[in-house]
């Protein structure tokens, strides 16, 4: 039996950034998907505990660090966990602002985003919507090859973000709904941005993808 060959678009890499919002520690992860192969490029946290109780400084740190990560890894899509409803209204407001900073950073680079409920992420990764952080981390260890991170204490926040990215991959990106302009469209609308090294790199990648789609045998 002859199996159908994967299309060239399926073999092109997609980079997904996952974020687990937090007001003191925010987890993030970046994966590259090529067909069914998933490679973990990084997973770590934005640690804001040393900033004390100054919420404005924390929001600024989130926005700036997210931009650094976006410019380094050039993600195609953002998957972010939606804040869960808690009893403390003030905590919910702060968490929502933190999530908003991460989303705003991606939208400023024309990167679409999708929100996933915590139960959806856990269900996708472990099969149970009530799984613990430890169970999510254990399943990710079984599923993926995880590079080491600097401090073990950061691990669960980082793996939570990795779970969000993997959940988005399992959804095949079908839920992308906001800020849906591609880098190619962005550069077409803003030709002067080609002067930016990051934009130039992304444009080169977009061009390479376009050529591969047009000439799949190349």
TrEMBL record:
Pfam families: RuvC
Active site: 20, 81, 157
Enzyme class, UniProt record, top EC level: hydrolase
Top-level taxon of the source organism: Bacteria
GO MF term set: crossover junction DNA endonuclease activity; DNA binding; magnesium ion binding
Cofactors named for this entry: Mg(2+)
Enzyme Commission number(s) from the entry: 3.1.21.10
Places the protein is found: Cytoplasm
GO cellular component, one term: Holliday junction resolvase complex
Keywords: Cytoplasm, DNA damage, DNA recombination, DNA repair, DNA-binding, Endonuclease, Hydrolase, Magnesium, Metal-binding, Nuclease
Record text on cofactor binding: Binds 2 Mg(2+) ion per subunit.
InterPro entries, A to Z: RNaseH-like_sf, RNaseH_sf, X-over_junc_endoDNase_RuvC
Catalysed reactions, as listed in the record: Endonucleolytic cleavage at a junction such as a reciprocal single-stranded crossover between two homologous DNA duplexes (Holliday junction)
Gene Ontology biological process: DNA recombination; DNA repair
Family according to the record: Belongs to the RuvC family.
Annotated function: The RuvA-RuvB-RuvC complex processes Holliday junction (HJ) DNA during genetic recombination and DNA repair. Endonuclease that resolves HJ intermediates. Cleaves cruciform DNA by making single-stranded nicks across the HJ at symmetrical positions within the homologous arms, yielding a 5'-phosphate and a 3'-hydroxyl group; requires a central core of homology in the junction. The consensus cleavage sequence is 5'-(A/T)TT(C/G)-3'. Cleavage occurs on the 3'-side of the TT dinucleotide at the point of strand exchange.
Summary of subunit composition and partner proteins: Homodimer which binds Holliday junction (HJ) DNA. The HJ becomes 2-fold symmetrical on binding to RuvC with unstacked arms; it has a different conformation from HJ DNA in complex with RuvA. In the full resolvosome a probable DNA-RuvA(4)-RuvB(12)-RuvC(2) complex forms which resolves the HJ.
Name of protein: Crossover junction endodeoxyribonuclease RuvC
Taxonomic path: Bacteria, Pseudomonadati, Bacteroidota, Cytophagia, Cytophagales
Name of the encoding gene: ruvC
């Amino acid at each position: 039996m002859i199996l159908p060959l994967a299309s060239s678009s399926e073999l092109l890499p997609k980079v997904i950034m996952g974020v687990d919002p937090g007001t003191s520690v925010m987890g993030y992860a970046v994966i590259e998907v090529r067909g069914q192969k998933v490679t973990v490029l990084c997973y770590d946290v934005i640690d804001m505990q040393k900033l004390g109780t100054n919420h404005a400084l924390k929001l600024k740190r989130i926005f700036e660090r997210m931009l650094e990560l976006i410019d380094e890894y050039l993600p195609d899509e953002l998957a972010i966990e939606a804040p869960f409803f808690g009893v403390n209204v003030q905590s919910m407001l702060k968490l929502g602002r933190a999530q908003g900073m991460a989303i705003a950073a991606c939208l400023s680079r024309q990167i679409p985003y999708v929100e996933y409920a915590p139960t959806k992420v856990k269900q996708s990764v472990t099969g149970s919507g009530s799984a613990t952080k430890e169970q999510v981390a254990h399943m990710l260890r079984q599923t993926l090859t995880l590079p080491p991170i600097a401090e073990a204490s950061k691990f669960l926040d980082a793996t939570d973000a990795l779970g969000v990215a993997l959940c988005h991959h399992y959804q095949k990106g079908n839920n992308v709904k906001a800020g849906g302009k591609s880098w190619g469209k962005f550069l077409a609308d803003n030709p002067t941005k080609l002067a930016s090294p990051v934009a130039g790199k992304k444009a080169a990648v977009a061009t390479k993808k376009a050529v591969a789609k047009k000439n799949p045998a190349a």
